[in-house]
Amino acid sequence: MDIRGSLTFPDATFAFINMRLISGLMSKEAWAPLLQECLRILEPGGILRLTDSEFPFTNGPVNEQLTDLGARAFWLDGRSFSPTGKRFDITVMLAKFLQDAGLAQVKHQAYALDFSFGTEAYDPWYHNLLVGYQLYLPFLLKQGVTTQKEFAQLYERLIEELRIRRFEVCSSFLSVWGSRPAGV
User: Is residue 64 within a helix (H) or strand (E), and if so which, with residue range?
Assistant: First the structure.
C-alpha cells in the first residue's frame, strides 16, 4: 500500500513499526499524516522507529557534483529540509517528527558506513550506485538540475572516479525511536 495515504490496518495492530530510508518518496507535508497513521496502528507501549540517511561524504569531485544535483532536485521538489538546497537535512528532523506525533521517550543512535574503495562494502555499494543513478536520472531531468548530455558525461567520469584506489566515501545514518504512550 502507499504509505502516503491511509493505512488499511486496524487500530493498535503492531507492537513495532520500522521504517527505513523512506525520505526519498516523502514530501515535507506527508510526514505528519504518515506518523499519525503509524501512531494509530501502533499498540500502546509499542515502538516506532525511523532510520534515514544523508547524502554521503566523499573525496570524489564527480560524486560530490552528482550529490549536489540530487540535493538541489529534492529541494526543488519539496522533499528536503535544507534551507538552501545544498543538503538533504532529513536526519535533523526525525526526532522532531516523532515528538510532534506524540511519541514518548524518543531516543536516537547514529551510524556511519564506510563504502570506500577496497572495503568489504564497496562492491555492492558501487553496483547499487551505478544502477541507482540511472534510475535517478528522470527525476533529475524533471527537476531541471541537469541535462541528458551533462549527466552522461558526469556518469562516465563517475565510473572512472569510483575505480581510483584513493576513493573514500562514508554515509551517515540516524535511527530514532519512541513509544506510543498509554491512552493515546
Answer: helix 61-76
